[in-house]
Every structure is written in structure tokens, then in C-alpha cells.
Amino acid sequence: MPTNYVLIDFENVQPRNLNLLETQPFKVFVFVGASQVRLPRHVVIAMQALGERAEYVEIDGNGPNALDFHIAYYVGVLVSADPKGAFQIISKDKGFDPLVRHLKRQKINIRRVKDLAEIPILRIPKKTDKDDMIDAIVANLINRGQSRPRKVQTLKNTIGNLVSDKLSDAERRALIDEMQKRKLLKISNDKIRYTLPTK
């Protein structure tokens, strides 16, 4: 199995689910901007649990795209050292996409995703029991904090990204309906209000 390298754009995404990486062969790099003087406690604890497989990369300076250039540099160094690895850039910044497309043309296994749970090795198997699938979706939504999907179609897309095999539109809608039945969310005029449990 190839080593999975995870490069997190912490200025852009502050994941609450780093613990997902503990049981898999991941090496994690968290890129921290010069103005980010404090890290959330849950991030520090999760990074400590990863031990030698986790590393902070502090950016020196606040120039435009300074952190992005650091990530691009590290991708190049890591790909050069381990061309058979799998590389995941965790960022909402679409500016990485031309680099990702270029490296894919070079047969490099790389992708940009917005959330750790979208990494293929971590995605929910379609054959998962419905209750377990909803639990996994709810855990992901809790971890997203204020960046949860606010419309039904966006939530359907999110669920599709979390499940390893393609779900039909009807299957995704059925999961949302079940979540509404369980009072985990309310839908009004296609807009979602969450009533998720606290951690």
C-alpha cells in the first residue's frame, strides 16, 4: 500500500477530524501561516497522537499565496522522494487545481479535497449499514463546524463525496430524509438548519 501524504492548508481549512488519520499509513503536514499564532487544542492533541508521522510547517512571512507556494514546494520534494505515494492537498483553494492536473498527467496520484473524510481510503463504503452511514455523515458534519452545507443539493454532493461508491440521487435524498426524520436537521425552502448533537 502506498504511503498517503496529507498536506493541510491550515489558513484555509481547520479540520476537526484529524483523528481519522491515526489508523492508516499517513504522513501529515500542517502548513501554518505566520499570523496563526495559536492552534486549536484538538489539532495539537491529534497531531501528537500521530507522533513522528506528523509535522508542522511554519510559513515565514505574509505575502500573497506564501503558504500555497510552500505546499507546492513540499509536494515537489515528496513526489521526488516517493513517486509511488498518494498525495492529498486539503484546501478549498482551487488555485491548486492546475498543479494537481499537471501532476496527474505525470502519473502522480494526487488530489485536492476540501475535507479529510473525502480522501478515498477514508471514505464510507456503500455497503455500510444505514445507521453507521448516518453516524459517519453526522460526525463529518459536526467536524465541519460553521462550514456545513446550507442547501439540500450541497448536502447531497457532500454525502456523495463521503461514500466510496457512487450513490444515486435518490439514495442520497433518502439519507437526508432519514436524518430529518431523526431530527438531525430541518429543511425549509431547500435551506437546511442543523440540530446535530454536540461532541
Radius of gyration over all CA atoms, rounded: 18 Å
> What is the spatial order of strands in the main beta sheet?
3-2-1-4-5
Strand tally, please? Answer: 7
> What is the highest CATH level, the class of the largest domain?
Alpha Beta
Shape, principal axes of CA atoms: globular
CATH-defined topology of the largest domain: Rossmann fold
What about the largest sheet? 5 strands, parallel
The structural domain count equals 2
Given as residue ranges, the uncertain stretches (5+ residues, pLDDT < 50) are none
Q: Strand portion, in percent?
A: 15-25%
Overall pLDDT score: 88
Helix content: 25-40%
Explain what you see.
Helix 5 packs across helix 6 (169-181). The protein has 199 residues and is of the alpha/beta class. The protein is built from six helices and seven strands, in the order ββαβαβαβαααββ. Strand 2 (26-32), helix 1 and strand 3 form a beta-alpha-beta unit. It has two domains: 4-121, Rossmann fold, CATH 3.40.50; 123-194, Arc Repressor Mutant, subunit A (Orthogonal Bundle), CATH 1.10.10.
